[in-house]
Structures are given as structure tokens and as C-alpha cells.
Amino acid sequence: MRISARLCLVVFAAIALGCGRGGPGGSGVKLPPPPEVDVSSLSPQSRELVTEALRRLEQNPDDGGMNGHVGMLLHAFNRLEDAAKFYGRARQIAPNSGRWSYYQGVALAERQQVDSAAEAFNANLESWEDHGPTRLRLALLYFEAADLAKSEALRTRAHQTLDKLVEELPDYAPGLIEKARRLAAAGDGKAAADLAQKAIDQGYEGREAHEALAEIYADSGNEEEAGRYEVLASKRPALGFGDEKWMGRITALATTNLGFAERGKAMVKAMMLGPATGEFERAVESGDKELDSRVNLIALYGMQGQIDKAERHYAAALRKGLESGRLHLNMATIRLAQGRQPEARQAYQKAIAIDPFLVKAYQGMSRSNLIEKNYSEAVRWARQAVQRAPKDVKALVELARALRYNGQHDEAVKYFSEAALYSEGKDQIQAMRSMASTQLEAKDYAGATKTLSKAKETAEKAGDNVQALLIESQMGEVTEASGAATP
Question: What residues make up the domain containing 435?
């Protein structure tokens, strides 16, 4: 079988990323030959990668890194039982490399082999006792086993494992979130909410803490707060166990099984914009999801300031009769940023004609009209965006801003207030500051003072001293204006 140079580079690069040999800490054991792997059910590309890795392993069967890498490839392609065998060999050769016991535990847990998975996780903890993801996976393994076996002993062990994790690693947010969910299920909503909020206050960037709070508030009947946290959760990525450093390598290997376009999307998610651009260009050349690939290339080239290349892909798509709402939207956004307002509006309207629910196109139409001081038109388009996405913060801010410039201060305050409700951090503070400025323009000095007091409290709680100082300055402006207006 001919192995392509590109695939070999993928295999070699993955090994170079840290698989390594057993090294000085290795056991020096000699193992039986590696087990045979049936690769017939794998896709051709996956089969090439695994076959090449196995060939290299035949030359160095007692290399811990190579055994582990074969396990990672098989894991990436969902061959969990085979993966666990190679992780086991890697553990025997390099027992001090905690990575292999962790990977093996994950693979075995997914296969619901409880005892073997628990042994692997516990072995990992002997070397990495403060590794939060291992502790959490072990606790969840016990919970799942307790449910299957209806065992109170296993349930007690699960709770003990989780409680010890939260006590000894209080900064490990996924542990706090899991404990919060368990407390909520047991009926202690107050303690559950406190733990989930603690994870957020620590700066946890995943969606899970917000999802937990949404569920807790929904169970307590507080629909407003539940809705707020649902919206906030939807803007964040799922981070799971917080083990991206290790599991991300397996995810990266899985992308080798994808086509150019799908690989490009995976790279965009990882913020690898340069490599993603290359993958989408190859997708266009090979005809792999050409329209979708050109849509993404327009956005990527726009972000990188290569407008001529974005225009080239836009024109090529139109020549071939390839159109979508996102194609026109991405080009319109670039033209908006360039100040080409009539062309931008033309492209936005084409996007809306194809996809009437493309909220960003309505926002773009509003922004373009606002720039040219067509305030009533800006309001009209912004209203349509909010009608289609009533909890979208950018749409709410766009409408509030347009209303403010159009002199409709009371309604602008309403929408800035809603934007603040469905945002957090700097976005929430900025919405409150804009709301206060609008109240000041309307000579509602008491309202502006109240809004800024809340904004300052939010900034101080977040430790944002810069925003707190800016808000103090803004409060001074309100005090001065109020004093000047008093007879």
C-alpha cells in the first residue's frame, strides 16, 4: 500500500508532539509482539495512518511513545478496545508517564469496563494526585457503575471521590459544577447555585456552569434568571473536563479522517486561521463543499485583511451560480468595514432575500444606515433583527443605539437594559454605561446614577479597575449635569 507523504508527516508530527520513548523513567520490560489490529473497517485515510503507525511500531515494539501513539490513533477513530491494549503496553514500558494511564482509563470508561477503568485512573493519580480531570472521571465512573448495579456502596464511593475533589482542588471548576448538579438533584438549590456561581467567578470559560445555573433557577421557578443563564450558556464553548491539553491531541488526530472542508472548520474552531485557509483553498480546488468553502474563505481573508482574495472568491462563486445567504453576508460585512455602504447594503439585502432569518444581515443594514445618519431606517432594520432574535445581545444593542440616535430615549433605555440582562463581564458593563449615557441625554439624572452605581458594582466584583474608574468619571458627569440643571 502506498503511503502519502502528507499522511506520514501527520503521523511523525503527532509523535513529535510529545509521545516520546519510554526514556530514563521507563521500565525496560520486553513485551510480546504488539497485538494484531483489524483495520478493514476503517476508512481508507484512517487505514493508511494506522497501518503506517503499526509498521513503525514493528521496528520498535518496546517504544512506549510509539505504542501510546497507536493507541491515540485507534482512540481517535473510535476503536476503543484496541486503543486500550496499546495504552496498556505504553504504561508497562513507561509507567511514569501518566498520560497513558489517563487515556486508557478514558477508553475503558467509554467501553463501560468499570474495574479496569478505575484501575487505570487510580494508577494515574499515584503520579498526578492533583489532576482534576482524572479525579472527576473516576467519580463519574463510580456514579455510572452505581446506577447500573444499583449499588449504594458504589454511590457512597462516588460521592466521597467527588467531595474530596472539591475539597482538595477548590479551583477546579468542572468539579464544582458536577458537585452543584448533584446538590441540585438532592434538592439543595441554594448550595448548588453558590458552587456554580463560584465556578463562574473563578473565570471558567465553558458553558457548563451557566447551564447548571439555568437548570437550578428553572427548578426553583425563577424563569427570568433561568432564561438569562440559558442565553449566556449558548455563547460559550463546552469544555467538559478541562483536559483539552491531552484529549485535544486525540481530537486533532481524528481530523485527519476528514475532508478538506471539515478539517478547515475544525481548524477555525481551534483559531488556526492560516492552516484553515489552506484547507479551504484545497477544498475549493478539489470541489469539496465548494460553496461552503468559499463562504469561509471570504470570512477568513476578510479577517486577515486580504480583501482582494475575498472579492475573488465572491466573484467566482457568483459566476458559477453558487449562492447562499452567508456568502453575501460575509462579503457585505467586509464592504461595511471598508466604508463601501451602498455595496454593503446591496449584499446584505441579497443575503436577506435568500435567508430571511439571517439576523446579522439585518444588523448590518441597521449599522450601515446608522453610519450614513439614516436613523429611522437604522431603527427599522434593527427592529427586524430583534424580532427574529429577541435575546441576541448584539441585536438588542444595535436597536438601542439606533433608537438613541433617533431621539427615542425611553425605548433605547429599555433595549440597553435587556442587553445588560443577557450579557456579562465587559459586555454587560458597556450596555449599562450606554444606558446611563442615554438616560443622561434624556435628563433622567436619578436613573443614570442608579444604572452607573450598578455598573460600578459589577466592575468591582469582576476586578475590572479600569472600568470602575471610567464609571466614576461618568458618574461625575451626571452629578455635574444634574447640578447645572438645578435652579
Answer: 423-487
